Amino acid sequence: MARKSLDDLPEIFVSTSEISYLASKAVRAGKLRKLASRLYTKDLASEPESLVRRHLWTVIAGYFPGALIADRTAHEGAPAKDGSVFLISQGAQSDVALPGFTLRPRLGAPAQQSDLPFRGVLHLTSPARTLLDNLVPSRSRGSISRTLTKAEIEIHLKTVLRRSGDTELSRLRNDARALAPILHRERELAALSQLVGALLHT
User: Fold this and answer.
1) Phi, psi (deg, nearest 5) at residue 77
2) How far apart are CA 63 and CA 14, in angstroms?
3) Closest by alpha carbon to 70, among 144, 153, 127?
């Protein structure tokens, strides 16, 4: 493999064993700035949080290649108000602290055929999978929980019903029914079916 140089690297990147020496040497020479563990940038002036925000999804893919954006983050399509980004990774499971953000991986089933490409470098859980995952109870991590509350899920389902009608709500339930055995979410499927059934009979 050809030896890399600084010119080969993007504005912000997560270092690997292949380039760790190059990155450390460039930091000492004042050509790179270290923003977090293994995270470097050629931009020596911009505010770190704004840099990370601008490249967030690419940075996540650098730490967790092939990750699946999941749980609350999949529903909201953005980091939580405290900067948490929840994801499924088949690799490392430790939280990663970045300027303004915290990446919070967990184990889970890999991307399914129904899951969606996201920002060209990641995947996003499908609407049905997102509902099933968010029905798993979770404790708050700081100021935010990994999953939505039951009230938040009910509001979402009512919005789907209002905007797209009962056919779309039934389709979501059917998609969840197909996924539940694969994801081991039978209990969550029962809760979702109860919520959807109540709305369709109202």
Assistant:
1) 70, 20
2) 7
3) 127
For the chain, the structural domain boundaries read: 6-45, 53-200
**Do residues 12 and 59 lie in contact, with contact meaning Cβ atoms separated by under 8 Å?**
yes
Please, which residues have CB within 8 angstroms of residue 58's CB and are 6 or more apart in sequence?
Answer: 10, 12, 119, 121
Coil vs helix vs strand at 81:
coil
Structure tokens belonging to residue 164: 């797209």
For 129, other C-beta atoms within 10 Å of its C-beta total 27
Give the model's pLDDT for residue 57. Answer: 96
176-188 per-position pLDDT tens digit:
999 999 999 999 9
pTM here?
0.92
User: Under a CB-based contact definition with an 8 Å cutoff, are residues 180 and 133 in contact?
Assistant: no
In the numeric block, the tokens 């609350």 are attached to: 72
Residue 103, token pair as written in the block: 């990446």
β-partners of residue 122 are: 118
User: Is 172's pLDDT higher than 80?
Assistant: yes
Token code pair at residue 138: 């979770």
The strand pair at 84-88 and 33-36 is best described as unpaired
**Cα distance between residue 140 and residue 74, in whole Å:** 17
Interacting residues of 123 by C-beta distance below 8 A, sequence separation 6+: 66, 67, 68, 69, 111, 115, 116, 117
Q: Which amino acid is at 10?
A: P
H-type helices in 29-149, by residue range?
Answer: 48-54, 56-63, 71-76, 127-134
